[in-house]
Amino acid sequence: MSKTREIFRAYSFDKWLFAATVCLIVFGLIMVFSSSVILASEKYRQAFHFLINQGIGAAMGLAVIILMLAIKKPFYQSPHVIYGMLALSGALLAICLAMPAIEKTNRWIQISGIRFQPSEIAKLSLILFLADYLTRKQGRIGELKPLAIPLVVLFLLVLLIIREPDYGTAILIFGIGAVMLFIGGVKFRYFFYLGGVSTALFAFYLFEASYRLQRVLAFLSPAKDPLGSGFQIIQSKLAVGAGGLLGVSLGESTQKLFFLPCAHTDYIYAIIGEELGLMGTLTILILFCIILWRGIIISLRAPDTFCRLTAAGLTLAIFGQALLNISIVLGLGPPTGLPLPLISFGRSSLICTLLSIGILLHISQRKESARAQT
After folding, report:
1. How far is 174 from 170, CA to CA, in rounded Å?
2. pTM of the predicted model, to two decimals?
3. Which residue range forms the structural domain that includes residue 176?
4. Which ranges of the chain would DSSP assign to H, the alpha helix?
5. Is residue 47 part of a domain?
6. Which of 57, 147, 185, 222 is the most exposed place for a label (fewest CB within 10 A)?
7. Residues 301-326: pLDDT tens digits?
């Protein structure tokens, strides 16, 4: 009889993935400062306000990665951690709805001046939960009955997030969950039912709030309301177009002078296009493609089904969000409020993304050895 053994080599992590991550963090710190210096000076009378906060998030996230790389035991594979994170995510999302609104939304929990978004934790907890559940139900996942639990969890998280409201993150989380179910072996015919229910749900909430519908209409015809719903799309395109091949040079953007809303968060890619040109935007895209490439490799080489599904889900979450953000900035989709991972200002997003990359790097250190005779 043979038994599969696993070899763990500390700090034998995927160097390409780590290098791409560090490059994106450095890019992010530079561009957060460049895009926010005027706003920070006006609002906080401290030009380095956003840079300092982003730097703190980057330092915390990198510290977590370094710590994880030295730990042999995969704590993220423990049912106590997985279901504890899932329960915590659901509770925090529910608490968000009872918190005082910030900027007319209930996306944040604020404690002693520190804000964080539970939806970022929800993405990670959903991926770990689905990886664990699909692994344990491998033999029965082709049946309809075992799908009840993951679908209830998925739609509950989506409903809580969409009520914040955060329509873009809700769509992203639903997409991640659907793809993981497909990779995990759910039969294709069940996705017709899933598609029907989800389409009805998202359509209801699209028409339930008039501003969401206006965003879609503005995306289709921004010129019809250039000073209203189409303003952000037009300004974003102007910023990217103004950069040309090499950009107007770092720090010289005019769109960040209160012309382009959310210049240091959702639309930071437009400022990169303006200041660093096509070469800058392509560099960012290539770095995210490296993350996609190495994530797929890590998934294919993972020692077990849980790790394969986890690596695939985390890679999809990071690259998929980046692709959605870039598409929106380029006017290829309606605004959704999704930040650019590792680049946009936001400590919650940055720390949770680095935690996800830390798990990917840890999985890359776990190798399946030759089978040992027992």
Report:
1. 6
2. 0.93
3. 2-77+120-367
4. 15-43, 49-70, 79-98, 118-136, 148-162, 167-183, 190-208, 210-220, 231-243, 268-300, 305-329, 347-364
5. yes
6. 185
7. 999 999 999 999 999 999 999 999 99
